[in-house]
Design goal:
Shape: globular
Order of helices and strands: EHEHEHEHEHEEHEHE
Bound molecules: NADPH dihydro-nicotinamide-adenine-dinucleotide phosphate
Distance between the termini: 43 Å
Number of strands: 9
Oligomer: single chain
Structural class: alpha/beta
Helix content: 40-55%
Radius of gyration: 17 Å
CATH topology: Rossmann fold
Strand order of the largest sheet: 3-2-1-4-5-6-9
CATH architecture: 3-Layer(aba) Sandwich
CATH class: Alpha Beta
Largest sheet: 7 strands, parallel
Amino acid sequence: MTDKPLVAITGASSGIGEATARAFAEDGYPLLLMARRLERMEALKLPNAICRRVDVCDRAAIAAAVAEAEAQFGPVDMMFANAGIARLADIGRQDPAEWDEMIDINTKGVMNTVHAVMSGMIARRSGTLVMMSSIAGRKVYPDHTVYCGTKFFVHAVSESLRAYLSPYDVRVLVVSPGVIETEVLNSVTDKQTLADYKANKVKMGGGIGADIVAQLILDAYRLPQKALVQEICLTPTRQA
Ligand code: NDP
């Protein structure tokens, strides 16, 4: 067992979510890990980790997983609303079904995730929400149209939530990475957009490791509750 508070992460089956799970586990935090690929989370074999197959579009499923983990480890003290997809494409030829998927997961999924823990944090007057946006939530790119829309949404919601929650001493940290080496582009179907993205990445000397994002989140979280890092904006040096 551990005396540290419970940390919950969505999208913990790969990439930044997985790296964050590893970093917090190494520091002794009990974890609730959520994603659709249960086997990937279980394969991490992290100590004191409850892994649950959860689609963030299913509000009841998130709430049930949170209730189950809280019964074992006490209240969620940090929720990382990280799950997201990036179906980057030329908007003129993109299938609108891809818009639906991004909007559902990256916007409604984030709200569902926040909803599962927010009232508890308000009641306890403590807690940290970590919201995954992107550099594409601060500036636009022509082949990121709907993705940018979803990430600007996360930025706006984070700022509003920060204003709403700060009187309750609940912290809201938004994470806005540039190019990070993960599986996020595996779902891109637009071959030209993918080729352009990869060429740009080569020009900037490759992406940053997900472990660096995870370490920054851990460092920010470990500050005293009265100290808030409002945003982590990490990019490859040459992406600026
Ligand atoms: P990955 O593709 O490696 O990770 C995405 C994670 O989200 C996976 O664990 C996936 O799990 C999960 N996920 C996707 N859809 C759902 C869903 N409906 N329900 C639950 N979990 C879901 O990519 P990253 O680690 O890069 O992505 C993590 C976040 O970081 C995303 O929000 C992304 O937009 C953001 N980001 C990434 C950047 C990058 O360059 N990599 C840059 C800026 C932001 P599963 O499929 O098992 O459900």
